[in-house]
Amino acid sequence: MAETWAILGRAIHAPAAVETLPRALIIITGDGKIGTVDPSVSPQDTRLRAFRSAGRLIELAEDQVLLPGLVDLHVHAPQFPQLGTALDRPLAEWLQTHTFPLERRYADLAFAESVYQRLVDTLLAHGTTTALYFSTIHLPATQRLAEICLARGQRALVGRVAMDHLEQCPDDYRDASAETAIADTRALIDFIRAMPGNDAGLVRPAVTPRFVPACTDELLAGLGALAREAGCHVQTHCSESDWAHHHVKARCGCSDAEALDRAGLLGRRSVLAHANFIGPADAARIRLRGAAVAHCPLSNIYFAGAVFPLRVMLAEGLRIGLGSDIAGGASASLFEAARQAVACSRMLESGTNPALPAARRGVPGSRVDFRTAFRLATAGGGEARDLPIGLFRPGYAFDAVMLQSGLPDGQVVFAPEDEGETVLERIVMGGGRGDIAAVWVAGRLVRARGG
């Protein structure tokens, strides 16, 4: 076990509201967890002398600030090479003509390894300490993705995509049967849990039906039973677009949320991507089951045809975090997803049709601000994953990002008089990869500027 160490400096997190810790001393135990947090330690504190003399104290400068690591709740790992392309196409066409042909290539393990290494490195550089990954139907490539996450030190949930529906999946890219998909999912669960060096569960498996249209009823029910048996997380799409939402209603006679619930796929460890078209009954069902929503504002712009009513759903008590939705979302930065969450909420509130009077144009009371977006990207993501991450709190994992003002390729500059919330607003609304000086996961430095 590693030695206990400490970090001293300004830190910001959001347990409920945004909280600034002006001169925090955070002690990290040998297992990578936070032992204690003193929000405003005295310069004469004897612990500082002890840690300094042992060479186990990191001291932040005045132009540096510590944030919890960012939690990305929805990443299509194999789609990374198509980032920013074909976003003018409808979702069904985008899948069939662009995405599925690319995902077929992951039968080539060398190709998969090169993409996944670059993706994980890129996300860590952007401050994403935790990612929920959809892979492809290929078990060896999915296993390799899990190994890369562990080797790079990124906290991850990795799922082999299951998809067997003859009418919705290409002939050359689908599971041969429900039994095959379930067996390979079980094999992935066993593989990840047995990976050498993964005793602490930094990387975990996920049961991953692609979405209801791509899966037969037999497959959905079988994956639900497997998730319960194995005690696994579940990740899937839910009511993403008009097409998907109405397709499920026509086929199943119910909404996505109800179809997933019937199959046993809706529970405390379930993360539903998008959920743009859920109604009050769906929201109540999701809340009752304890499931969470991955809000993906960037990809919703391109494929949803609607704006997720974020503020309403938060008020309904849903657990919600943010997702980049690579590659339906055209950025690997969760700060960009946070900015778009703010922008989309303002568009929903104000409306977008200038032909309508202002009073009839939008949905009043829909806006959220940078504070809410920051919480969704950190603590909200931790709550959605049902894991102790996203906060500077004793017992939580020390997953953290250090940002620095005025870096040569950065965008954020703190003024000397800036208070904590002003600093945070500058970061959320303008920050990115160039402003990040260091990244830790589970107490381990996994990325440093220049590294």
CATH superfamily of the largest domain: Metal-dependent hydrolases
Specify the helix fraction band: 25-40%
Low-pLDDT residue intervals, each spanning 5 or more residues:
none
Percent of residues in β-strands: 15-25%
Strand order of the largest sheet: 6-7-8-9-10-11-12-13
Structural write-up:
38% of the residues lie in helices and 21% in strands. With 451 residues, it is an alpha/beta fold. It has two domains: 5-68 and 391-448, Roll (Urease, subunit C, domain 1), CATH 2.30.40; 70-385, TIM Barrel (Alpha-Beta Barrel). The strands form three sheets. It has an eight-stranded parallel sheet. Strand 8 (155-162), helix 5 (178-194) and strand 9 (203-209) form a beta-alpha-beta unit. The two termini are 24 Å apart. The relative contact order is 0.15. The model has no long low-confidence stretch (mean pLDDT 96).
List the helices and strands and how they pair.
Elements: E1 5-13, E2 19-28, E3 34-38, H1 46-53, E4 57-59, E5 64-68, E6 70-76, H2 91-104, H3 109-125, E7 128-134, H4 139-152, E8 155-162, H5 178-194, E9 203-209, H6 217-230, E10 233-238, H7 242-252, H8 256-262, E11 270-274, H9 280-289, E12 292-295, H10 297-303, H11 310-315, E13 319-322, H12 334-350, H13 358-361, H14 370-385, E14 400-404, H15 420-430, E15 436-441, E16 444-448
Parallel strand pairs: 1-4, 6-7, 7-8, 8-9, 9-10, 10-11, 11-12, 12-13
Antiparallel strand pairs: 1-2, 2-3, 5-14, 14-15, 15-16
